[in-house]
Amino acid sequence: MRIGIDAHILGKHQGGVERYVKEIVTRVPLLLNEHRFFVFVNRQYGKTVRNRDNIKYIVTPISDPVVQRSVILPFLVNKLRIDILHTQRVLPFFVNCKCLVSIHDILPLSMPENHKGLRNEIIRKLTPWSAGKALRILTVSETVKREITSILNVSKSKVKTVYNGIDHRTGKEIKCDISIGSPYILYSGAIEPRKNLLYMLKGFKLACKKFPDPLKLVIAGMDRNNEYKKELCNLIKEENIDNRIIFAGYVSDSTLDVLYGNAEIFMAPSMGEGFDMPPLEAMKKRTPVICSDIEVHRELLSGSALFFQFDSPEDLAEKVVLLLSNPVKNKDLIARGIETANKFTWDRMACQTAEIYKETGKTRT
Q1: CATH number for the domain including 75?
Q2: Could you give the CA distance from residue 11 to residue 232 in angstroms, rounded to a whole number?
Q3: Residue 206 belongs to some domain of the structure
Q4: Within-domain flag for 173
Q5: Residue-wise pLDDT tens digits, 162-202
Q6: Helix (H, G, I), strand (E, B) or coil at 273
C-alpha cells in the first residue's frame, strides 16, 4: 500500500495533536515495512528530516490547513497514487483514495463559546462532513467516541478508540531553563479559555491563604488567545499574587520533565478535553495530580487523581490544601498515578494504528 499522512502540524509547538502525529510518523512505518509512506510536512519542518527506507517526506508549499486540504493534498494524493490518506480533524475534498481521519475532540461543536474565530467555524462545518466521508475515524478516548457517535451521528463500528501514549523516558533529566526557587504547583498546556485558568488562579489564591511560605504557580504553555491572557494578567494583579505566578511560555521536553518532577502538585483544570496528556506525564514523574471533574478525566484518571468541580475555586483550594498537608494521601496518590501512567504507551498506540491501516487496506469501498 501507499499510505499518506498529513503532518503539516509538525514543528509548530501546538500540543497533543502534534505529539500524536509525530509518534505516528516515527513508529508506524517501522511496523509496516512492506508498505510505502508519504508524509506531508511544512517547509520549516521539512528542513529537519531525511527520507528513510519506506518513508518519503513531501514538503508542501503552503501549510495553511484550508489551502492544503482544498488544493495541495488532493493534487499530491492523486499524483502519488496514494491508497490510504490519514489526516487530522478534516479530510480534503476531491481525493480518490480510502480516507482515515483522527478526531481528537469535538469541542468546537460542543463548546462553541470557547472556540471562536474562522478556523473553528470551518472545523464546525467540515468535521461532520469528514466523519461521514471517512472510512474509519480514529479517536483518543471512549468519551470522545460517544460524543462522535451521538453528535455527528455515525455508527459505533466506524469509530476506533486508540489511546494516546506518554513519554516514558528513562534516566534523570538535568537540563532546565527555569529557576523557581520556591515550592510550586505546575500547570502545563495551552493558555486559552477552555483550559479554565481563571478558576485555577482563583483557587490557587484561596489555597495560598493557608500557606504563608512563598508557594508559587508555574504556567507552562503557549498563548493561544491574547484577550484571555490579558484577562488572566488582570486577575493576577487584582488578587495581588504577581509575585507567586510564573508564566514560563513554551518549554522544551527536558525542561518540562524537570518541572514535572519537582512540582508539589500538577493541576489539570480544563473544562473540556479529548485526552489530556500532561496529568499522565506528571504522574509518571511522581507528581500528584488535581484535575477537573469532567468525563474524560474520570475515564483516564479515576482512582489516581483528586477531582474538583471545575467552576468551584473553593473546591480546588480544598484539594490543594489536602495534598500539601497530608503526606499519606500524597504518597498514595503518587503510587496510584504511576500505575495509571504506565498503561499509556506510544508503542501500543502505534501497533493499534498500524492494524487499522492494514484493516482499511483490505476493506472494499
Answers
A1: 3.40.50.2000
A2: 27
A3: yes
A4: no
A5: 999 998 665 444 556 677 878 999 999 999 999 999 999 99
A6: coil
Q: Is 246 left (phi over 0), alpha (psi -120 to 50) or beta?
A: beta
Q: How far is 290 from 297, CA to CA, in rounded Å?
A: 10
Q: Contact, 178 vs 248, CB < 8 A?
A: yes
CA distance 210 to 118: 44
Give the per-residue pLDDT at 214: 85
Same domain, residue pair 80 and 220: no
Please give the Cα distance from 48 to 54 (Å, whole number): 18
* Helix, strand, coil tally for the chain in percent (to 5): 45, 20, 35
**Spans of the chain, pLDDT less than 50:** 171-173
Is 70 in contact with 95 (CB distance < 8 Å)? Answer: no
Domain that holds residue 57: 2-165+345-362
Cβ within 8 Å of residue 276, ≥6 positions away = 16, 268, 270, 291, 296, 297, 300
Say how many domains are in the chain. 2
Report pLDDT digits (tens) over 35-57.
999 999 998 888 888 998 899 99
Helices (H), 96-168: 107-110, 118-133, 142-151
* 172 part of a folded domain: no
Give the count of alpha carbons within 13 A of 122, CB side only: 13
- Report the DSSP beta bridge partners of residue 36: 2
Q: Which residue has the cell 508542501?
A: 60
Distance CA 47, CA 37 (A): 18
217-235, pLDDT tens digit by residue?
A: 999 999 988 999 999 999 9
Q: How far apart are CA 147 and CA 272, in angstroms?
A: 12
